[in-house]
Amino acid sequence: MRYIRPQSIEEAAGLLASAAGPAAILAGGSDLLVRMKGGFIEPELIVDIKAIAGLSEIKETADGFSIGAAVPCAVLGENAALKKAWPGVVEAAKLIGSKQVQGRCTIVGNLCNASPAADSVPALVAAGAKAVVAGPNGRRTIAVEAVPTGPGRTSLAKGEIIEAILLDKPAPNAGDAYQRFIPRTEMDIAVVSAGVNLTLDEAGAIKAARVALGAAAPTVLLVEEAAEVLVGSKLDEATLERLAKICAGACRPIDDKRGTIEFRRKVAGVLAKRVATTAYERAGGK
């Protein structure tokens, strides 16, 4: 096994592209090291990206935020500007693992691990986040929801690395939120989760919305029909009930020891209502 700590994103991409055997990226390592210890993977090459300039930084610009691939989730919670702009994204990231894990884990690692139950991904999808992908052929920017293609699988080609996550500056009167259901009080995997992002007009009616569900299908679901129901409303009870019904119907969950299909569909609707209400209040709705 080879361990290399490159100094540039181009060097890292080149190493991954030329690897003869299985290769892995090390940022926080909270998924990688556990999988290696369990014998699930045996990479021939480990590329540690933490020494690459800019990848451990959160940059605020006039357009929004750029979150480097090696930024620990604990740091997201300490960034006041990001927390104010995107509270739902930050609260989702802060649910990954324990306090100790928070100091290591990253939202890019959470995304690329491609678990349907990843906490940060529904919130990022609801926020309309984008991923900057660097590789042997240069850079490209794609929607976050285009990265996972199934459990443990992504759309990234050999040699490609997600360099950063981009979040736009929120529009006036906008708010987002995230919640999950777990059997325990903490340090558990979501049985179902929901992220909602809303923008209101001057009269307090919803003029734009994004609704995302996690652990409800092989990948995070962006439920466009649910967003359409919300637009034009002031989140009255009838609208919330329609939202819950649509979200429950959009789910494609599995039966397992943590929850049945029927249970997951019911919880998806309940969570969607709760999260939409929080997002509406954060956007200034009454």
Q: How would you describe this structure to a colleague?
A:
This protein is of the alpha+beta class and 286 residues long. 33% of the residues lie in helices and 25% in strands. It is globular. The strands form 4 sheets. Strands 4-5-10-6-7 form a 5-stranded antiparallel β-sheet. A 4-stranded antiparallel β-sheet has the order 11-12-13-14, with helices on both faces. A 3-stranded parallel β-sheet has the order 1-3-2, covered by helices on one side. It has a domain at 175-282: CO dehydrogenase flavoprotein, C-terminal domain (Enolase-like, domain 1, 2-Layer Sandwich), CATH 3.30.390.50. The mean pLDDT is 96. Helix 5 (87-93) packs antiparallel against helix 8 and helix 9 packs antiparallel against helix 10. The protein is built from 11 helices and 14 strands. The longest helix has 22 residues, at 261-282. The relative contact order is 0.12. The chain starts with a strand and ends with a helix.
